[in-house]
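Dissemination and training. As part of the outreach component of the grant, students in the summer workshop were shown how a complex can be specified as a set of sequence lines and then modelled as a single object. The example used during the hands-on session is reproduced here so that future cohorts can follow it. Participants entered these lines:
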Amino acid sequence: MIEVSIKKSYGSFTLDARFESGAGVTALYGVSGAGKTSIVDAIAGLNRPDAGRIVVGGTALYDSSRAIFQPPEHRGIGYVFQEDRLFPHLTVRRNLQYGSQRTSGHNNGPDFETVIGLLGVEHLLDRLPHRLSGGEKQRVAIGRAVLSRPRLLLMDEPLANLDSTRRYEILPFLEKMCRDLEVPIIYVSHAIDEITRFADTLVVLDRGKTLAVGAVSEITARLDLGPLVDRRDAGTVLDGQIAAHDTMYKLTTVSFQGGRLVIPAIDGTVGDRLRLRIQARDIAIATTLPDNISTLNCLGGTITQVSASRQAHQDIQIDVGVPILARVTRRSVVELGLEPGREITALIKSVAVERAAAP
Amino acid sequence: MLTPLEIEIITLSLRVAFWAVLFGLPLAIAAAWLLARTHFPGKALVDGALHLPLVVPPVIVGFTLLVLFGRQGAIGSILYDWFGFSFAFDWKGAALASGVMAFPLMVRAIRLSIEAIDQRIETAARTLGASHLRVFATITLPLALPGVLSGTVLAFARSLGEFGATITFVSNIPGETRTMPLAVFSLMQMPGPNDAILRLVLVSIAIALAALILSEALSRRISARIRGSVP
Amino acid sequence: MYVGILRLMLMAHRFGWAAMLGTLLCLTVSHARANSVLVFAAASAAPAIRAASASFTERTGTTVTVSGAATSTLAQQIVRGAPAQIFVSAHPRWINHLAERNLIDQVRQTTLLSNSMVLIAHRDSSLNTLNPASRSIAAALGKDGRLAIGDPDHVPAGVYAKQALMTLGVWNSIAERLAPAGDVVTALTFVARGEAPLGIVYRTDVGLSDAVHIIGSFPPNSHEVVRYDIAPVRANTSDTATALLRYLTSEAARPVFERFGFIFLPKT
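and obtained this result:
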């Protein structure tokens, strides 16, 4: 669906990124300056790489070997920027409808009423942008891009300029949009919670280079991706299903490929798919099965990798059916003899498991 | 209050200034956009050339116009032979002289106004499928409107006051090229007091003031509508 | 393009630049005030005055600055206190204007030069001779040609031209067909560039361009005598200025003026 392979030199910084992705949401993750915005700008046609190719839906938008470069207005790619970039002299309605005459996009796109309903902007249609709050502006910006019937939607940290209240306001809209839209999305972010919430494919970038491309759950369990694993809140994303609810204790059981997890009750019916995130520092390791402890989730598994470290902690990859990451002190690693191949029990506190969703 | 002769002079001035601005405006907008939004080899030269009427003595501009647009001029002769159209000794020549002298003022005002527009908004429009032309017509021009307006008014006022280039290019023909400044100058050269001068001067000032006030009011209305986009 | 350049210079002067420059010059050289003279001269006479003054400078070492501009403009500047020491006017109207205000020394006022008016056409034009008295100017202008003259409202050459045309009874036939220029050199330029088929200028101006030639002349009695008067400006008079004035009105200056085509009037 989307193939990107570009090189661009910016003086001291060189971008050399390569990835492919299919339908759904592809997240581009990296710290500031990793080159994420340059990549999406190149996909949109807003900058010109030095060499490479960009193919979307089988059409080459850029190919340096064949001297192909489609200007942005012909690419049929919608773009939601970090700053809303609404047209200040047009009402919300006119802003939303600006791109709907596009001839180079999809022929069927979501219709106007659906989108404004989804984004909750019906009551704002006749206002001018300067009379909208930051969150409202960003919602309109998203609607505008979506209504231009793009064949690919780019979003460059659309929530970065919003304060946390506004972010949480928009996240549900975004999530629904990502699910309902039939258009592939490339979502740039350095915020782990956004990515784990929406993304299907994750591309990790570091200083202009692609470090890894793959499913979110698989990528988040790797030990070698610095930008991800060096975070204080590093952790694994798991895909699962609601198995049962315990109304008495207000707990929910979630089944996943590694077994079952008991977590504080969440909304949803049995069978609903969901995503969970467990931070590495919330997983403890025991070499013998403990008695009488409060932890409800004790999963047996085998250590597959141990990170090299001189610091106080080390990260351990454990296979419980799927890989998960745990973070323990180096002293414990030594004293318990934690090494690849060892069979252990991973202890995961219920209250530490987050649904990859708003609190 | 005003003699028929004076009314003729004022009407001629208004006509000359009106046409000078009308024809200059599309060119000025194009030039301003080119200077504000594009890069090409020789851009600095074009920029400098456009500003020449501002810094070069008006009579030199008038003389250049004579050489280029007179009946025997490089461009004027083509216009005359092919279209029967002539600027020489004609109010149209006065309009051309005014237009050329006022052109840099229009370009400057419009260019500043375009440069003040956040280009990121224009880029956003392109990602929504708008061609350069559509971006210009629906985004750039509407947002630049206050500058276009003030440039037009400035040019109009400058045209009303244009003297040196006019008298050198098309001379001082009553009814054809004797605009207010030329008429006042003639009157001033005759010894003795003259009420006609006072009347013409007052009318000039009144027209200029009215134009300025109108443009200021319109400009503010437009800016209010696009508040937040122009610093 | 000699006439072009000359015209440019004169036009620049018209707006008093040289007068301002001259003022600055005088101010900066103020310690040598005794050794320089500033002359305001009508544009059509300025080159000749300059040439005549050059001999004076050779002999005495006094710097002479001649500021040429429209007579009317110069007169206005003197009224407003310009530091000119000598004034050369192309028409009595303005020197009288200054005399009325007691700005010039009428005792030393002299009528210095005279000139005659000629009808000119472009060198390549089919018109070779035309007697203005024969009343065929209007016909010679063709369908939409104009007669280039100095603006009769305020340019001395224009005043004389209008008088001549009126005397000859042809004014009415061409009054609507004029191109009244800001000064006589511009009128000449219009003809030199082929923009106007005919023009009326001073005989002394014809030499400014080789693109024009004389096709007819106006009899001297068809207009007021063309008079260039010279007088000292009271407020700025000095011994060196007086010396220059005496030189310019002396026989020693005659050959220079006659070379330019002027009629030199002072009799010794």
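Chain A touches chain B at residues 44, 46, 71-73, 76-79, 81, 83, 85, 87-89, 98-99, 101-105, 128-130, 144-145, 148 (CB under 8 Å). Students were then asked to discuss how this feature might be tested experimentally.
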